[in-house]
């Protein structure tokens, strides 16, 4: 718990006139499951893309695993993007084999175990899968890797209840065994708030509250209530 | 708030309060009450985290505290068991009762009540709850 896996100082990022991140300050401790919470458009995805160097800040300083983001730090990050991109003719097995040949730290054995746990048919074509099934395979590609940090961008959005439950259950199982740090962004915290032991609340490109989730509960009540209060304005627009 | 049963334990988890203390308090009282018997196996950390849908680290911290209380013991490779010593549970129960009484007394004293008043209230309470045993 002593080191930080992510540190941002005074990060600003514009897209045209719109400020995606605005003097964004954050330090995320290692070995935790951190929830990055906020409504759509609050800067979560920009921040996540910055972690892997896909987006560069206009101003400010970012460190991931103690270094500037680069292909070297990316070797130690498993990233789940908000939408899957595949070869539609691949079977689930072929998608995993693709992972096995390209992704550092990937364990095929572990991936196969996870498909069993998550009820994925290895011979099914990924092209014909539901969003929930896609999301499960994408998660397997992340969890089958032995890396320091796992970054999941909106893993619970737009998927069926069973897939959602399966994903939460496999995260709990997986996290019990591992020392890895996990960052999860979501704008929908129902049924997942118990997972987070560290919380970052974002609004309009800034972190408006950062700290241990237990302290947040002691101070303000359930994440759901806090969420509702803090973002009321956005939701009433 | 829904009640969840995990093995022979019952939990009510309220997400508006810190989770660690809720798990710890509820497991402690389950053992003190004998809801889970001496020497019985506790649910595994994973099982409890799964059922309650909470971070396994939170459950693990609560389990470590139960062990420090002397209420449970870890057996290598087998999991966590309720202590088989009735003395451990009894002394824990006594300590917990003392703590409850302290906070009760503190609250009563903050109302400016003297010992005699408190005694009267307790007696009244017992009389209105007739049919019960002697405290």
UniProtKB/TrEMBL annotation, chain A:
<dbReference type="InterPro" id="IPR003439">
    <property type="entry name" value="ABC_transporter-like_ATP-bd"/>
</dbReference>
<keyword id="KW-0547">Nucleotide-binding</keyword>
<dbReference type="GO" id="GO:0016887">
    <property type="term" value="F:ATP hydrolysis activity"/>
</dbReference>
<keyword id="KW-0067">ATP-binding</keyword>
<dbReference type="InterPro" id="IPR003593">
    <property type="entry name" value="AAA+_ATPase"/>
</dbReference>
<feature type="domain" description="ABC transporter">
    <location>
        <begin position="6"/>
        <end position="229"/>
    </location>
</feature>
<protein>
    <submittedName>
        <fullName>ATP-binding cassette domain-containing protein</fullName>
    </submittedName>
</protein>
<dbReference type="InterPro" id="IPR027417">
    <property type="entry name" value="P-loop_NTPase"/>
</dbReference>
<dbReference type="Pfam" id="PF00005">
    <property type="entry name" value="ABC_tran"/>
</dbReference>
<dbReference type="InterPro" id="IPR051782">
    <property type="entry name" value="ABC_Transporter_VariousFunc"/>
</dbReference>
<dbReference type="GO" id="GO:0005524">
    <property type="term" value="F:ATP binding"/>
</dbReference>
<keyword id="KW-0813">Transport</keyword>
From TrEMBL, chain B:
<dbReference type="GO" id="GO:0003700">
    <property type="term" value="F:DNA-binding transcription factor activity"/>
</dbReference>
<dbReference type="GO" id="GO:0003677">
    <property type="term" value="F:DNA binding"/>
</dbReference>
<dbReference type="InterPro" id="IPR036390">
    <property type="entry name" value="WH_DNA-bd_sf"/>
</dbReference>
<keyword id="KW-0238">DNA-binding</keyword>
<protein>
    <submittedName>
        <fullName>GntR family transcriptional regulator</fullName>
    </submittedName>
</protein>
<dbReference type="InterPro" id="IPR036388">
    <property type="entry name" value="WH-like_DNA-bd_sf"/>
</dbReference>
<keyword id="KW-0805">Transcription regulation</keyword>
<keyword id="KW-0804">Transcription</keyword>
<feature type="domain" description="HTH gntR-type">
    <location>
        <begin position="17"/>
        <end position="85"/>
    </location>
</feature>
<dbReference type="Pfam" id="PF00392">
    <property type="entry name" value="GntR"/>
</dbReference>
<dbReference type="InterPro" id="IPR000524">
    <property type="entry name" value="Tscrpt_reg_HTH_GntR"/>
</dbReference>
């Amino acid at each position: 718990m002593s080191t930080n896996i992510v540190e941002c100082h005074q990060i600003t990022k514009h897209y045209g006139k719109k400020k995606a991140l605005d003097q964004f300050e954050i330090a995320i401790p290692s070995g935790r499951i951190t929830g990055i919470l906020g409504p759509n458009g609050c800067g979560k995805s920009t921040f996540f893309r910055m972690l892997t160097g896909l987006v560069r800040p206009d101003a400010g300083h970012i460190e991931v695993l103690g270094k500037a983001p680069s292909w070297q730090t990316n070797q130690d990050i498993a990233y789940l993007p908000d939408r899957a991109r595949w070869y539609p003719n691949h079977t689930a097995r072929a998608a995993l084999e693709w992972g096995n040949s390209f992704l550092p730290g990937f364990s095929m054995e572990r991936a196969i175990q996870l498909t069993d746990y998550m009820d994925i048919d290895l011979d099914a074509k990924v092209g014909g899968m539901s969003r929930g099934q896609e999301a499960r395979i994408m998660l397997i590609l992340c969890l089958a890797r032995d890396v320091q940090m796992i970054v999941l961008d909106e893993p619970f959005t737009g998927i069926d209840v069973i897939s959602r439950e399966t994903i939460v259950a496999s995260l709990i199982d997986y996290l019990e065994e591992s020392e890895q740090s996990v960052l999860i962004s979501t704008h929908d915290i129902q049924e997942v708030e118990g997972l987070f032991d560290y919380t970052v609340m974002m609004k309009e490109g800034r972190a408006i509250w950062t700290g241990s989730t237990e302290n947040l509960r002691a101070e303000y009540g359930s994440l759901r209530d806090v969420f509702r209060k803090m973002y009321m304005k956005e939701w009433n627009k | 708030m829904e009640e969840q049963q995990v093995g022979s334990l019952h939990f009510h988890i309220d997400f508006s309060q810190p989770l660690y203390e809720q798990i710890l308090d509820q497991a402690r009282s389950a053992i003190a009450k004998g809801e889970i018997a001496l020497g019985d196996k506790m649910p595994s950390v994973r099982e409890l985290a799964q059922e309650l849908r909470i971070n396994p680290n939170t459950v693990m911290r609560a389990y470590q505290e139960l062990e420090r209380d002397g209420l449970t013991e870890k057996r290598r490779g087998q999991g966590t068991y309720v202590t088989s010593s009735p003395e451990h549970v009894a002394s824990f129960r006594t300590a917990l009762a003392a703590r409850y009484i302290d906070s009760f007394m503190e609250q009563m004293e903050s109302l400016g009540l003297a010992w005699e008043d408190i005694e009267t209230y307790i007696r009244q309470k017992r009389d209105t709850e007739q049919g019960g045993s002697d405290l």
